[in-house]
Amino acid sequence: MVKIKGLEKFAPKDFPAHISATVFLGGCNFRCPFCHNADLVLRPESLPTFPIDFFISFLDERKGWLEAVCITGGEPLLDEDLETLVRVIKDRQLLVKIDTNGSFPDRLEHLIREKIVDFIAMDIKAPLGKYERVVGRRVPEKNIQWSVDLIRSSGLAYMFRTTVVPGLIDFKEIREIGEWLRGAKLYQLQQFSPRNTIDPHYLHVRPYDRKDILKMAEIAREYFVEVRVEGI
């Protein structure tokens, strides 16, 4: 059974234009050094697990009020029981958003084919060719491209997003990502948060100034239909 490691009962920013909650699943196949969910990624077994019955009761108690559930991690597609959780949500006529790093395109394709996902947010960690340095693992970049292609052709609402981390992502990388994903509907730049990071070095990295991120957003607007900035 799927292991829910966290529940945000009201997450107003996670599913645009809908009243939503967010569930967190443990474990991730990436080791992004700047990730601020270190316990969720490295030590999910140390966190309490919410029983599925508790989550079902939570949904049923909010019938008529809650509109959507976001499933994040970690990397939710790593959990082989994810579909069970998604169907619990869809059985209650709620919208489902999946956050993913794009490394499991076959599982993502299955959810799309089954018509049980409504919104996909994919983290674009870096331009192709630079992934390994940013995610701390060897990644078959063909899987990243496969996920991008699936999402763009799915007909679903979607978002690509990048956390801008000094030393890893700069103006040059934003332009390279723009060239790669040119014409995509929605791209979001996210401010880096130096807290509880997987690599302690990043606790001491100063985030970009607001003006620098806004300049990155201007670069991104040359390539994307809509660009948003989060966390500044």
What does this structure look like?
The chain is an alpha/beta fold and 232 residues long. It has a single domain (4-230), classed as Aldolase class I (TIM Barrel, Alpha-Beta Barrel), CATH 3.20.20.70. It is built from eight helices and eight strands, in the order E-E-H-H-E-H-E-H-E-H-H-E-H-E-H-E. It has helices spanning 38-42, 52-61, 82-90, 105-113, 131-135, 141-153, 171-181, 210-220, and strands at residues 4-8, 20-25, 68-72, 95-100, 119-123, 157-164, 186-191, 226-230. Strand 6 (157-164), helix 7 and strand 7 (186-191) form a beta-alpha-beta unit. The protein starts with a strand and ends with a strand.
Which helices and strands appear, and what pairs or packs with what?
Blueprint: E1 4-8, E2 20-25, H1 38-42, H2 52-61, E3 68-72, H3 82-90, E4 95-100, H4 105-113, E5 119-123, H5 131-135, H6 141-153, E6 157-164, H7 171-181, E7 186-191, H8 210-220, E8 226-230
Parallel strand pairs: 2-3, 3-4, 4-5, 5-6, 6-7, 7-8
Antiparallel strand pairs: 1-2
Helix pairs in contact: 4-6, 7-8
Give a short account of the largest sheet. Answer: 8 strands, mixed
Helical residues, percent? 25-40%
Secondary structure tally: strands: 8
As for the CATH topology, it is TIM Barrel
**Mean of pLDDT:** 95
Shape: globular
Judged by helices, strands and strand pairing, the structural class is alpha/beta
According to CATH, the homologous superfamily is Aldolase class I
Q: State the helix count.
A: 8
CATH hierarchy, class? Alpha Beta
User: pLDDT below 50 for ≥5 consecutive residues: which ranges?
Assistant: none
Our estimate of the beta-strand percent is 15-25%
Give the SSE string. Answer: EEHHEHEHEHHEHEHE
Radius of gyration from CA coordinates: 17 Å
Amino-to-carboxy terminus distance: 38 Å
Label the CATH architecture: Alpha-Beta Barrel
Could you give the order of strands across the largest sheet?
1-2-3-4-5-6-7-8
